[in-house]
Design a protein that fits this description.
The chain is about 80% helix and about 0% strand. By secondary structure, it is mostly helical. It has one domain.
Length: about 230
């Protein structure tokens, strides 16, 4: 721990304000990455097994229990299915609309702070370049002021700043960009699972009569057959 504090102090002394901004970018990016990883871990479910168990519950026309299961399960797929079940008595059009609305609401939650992460990945190397410019400006100022008798230690200080800030900016940007692409891939996977769950929910609820009151579930085809008038002999 003391060595880490010493290293940070050295970087701040050598890199100045620009180095401080680069370290702030790194800290913010770390918090965003950890928060997204934790959130995606909670949102990840086995959609196939989840749908199979949920449809078994719905076949018993226990919609309330199915809604409770969806509420207890975290993740966009469960939320989309819950929205579909709540409209199960209103027909296929209403169910499809509920799935679309829930999907549109879940997508921004999955993409939370991703623009910030992409911005940090682009800003960090730019800050490193700014530090290089600041270091070179200070270098030439020292040369102009000192002339031929300029102190090489002062020149080295500015060169250190130029090199350290550039290296720090690139070092911070590379892992941020790598994690950004990794998280985007995770988001794509969750969105795919959400779309699949929504489609399966629409198909099931459209072919089965499920009510929000307990009872016996039956297929809509069977129900329609019962409602048809008997053919006279």
């Amino acid at each position: 721990m003391p060595s880490i504090m010493f290293s940070l102090q050295f970087l701040l002394n050598a890199g100045g304000l620009v180095m401080f901004l680069i370290i702030v970018c790194a800290a913010i990016a770390l918090l965003v990455i950890l928060e997204r990883l934790f959130s995606f871990r909670r949102a990840q479910i086995d959609v196939h097994d989840f749908l199979r168990g949920l449809f078994n519950v719905l076949q018993r026309n226990n919609a309330r229990e199915a809604i409770t299961i969806c509420e207890e399960a975290s993740g966009p797929a469960a939320h989309v299915i819950r929205a579909a079940i709540l409209r199960c008595e209103q027909g296929e059009g209403a169910i499809r609309q509920a799935v679309e609305e829930a999907s549109l609401a879940e997508a921004p939650r999955l993409e939370k702070n991703m623009r910030l992460l992409a911005t940090l990945a682009h800003v960090a190397p730019m800050l490193g370049l700014l530090g290089t410019m600041v270091g070179m400006i200070g270098l030439f100022q020292e040369m102009e002021t000192g002339g031929s008798l300029v102190d090489t230690a002062l020149l080295a200080k500015h060169i250190w700043r130029a090199l350290l800030t550039t290296a720090a900016g690139i070092t911070v940007a590379i892992p941020i960009y790598a994690f950004y692409n990794f998280l985007v891939a995770r988001i794509d996977g969750l969105l795919l699972d959400m779309d699949r769950a929504g489609s399966e929910a629409i198909r099931f609820l459209s072919s089965h009569r499920v009510t929000l009151n307990n009872g016996t579930s039956e297929t809509r085809q069977a129900r329609d057959g019962e409602n048809q008038p008997a053919t006279p002999a």
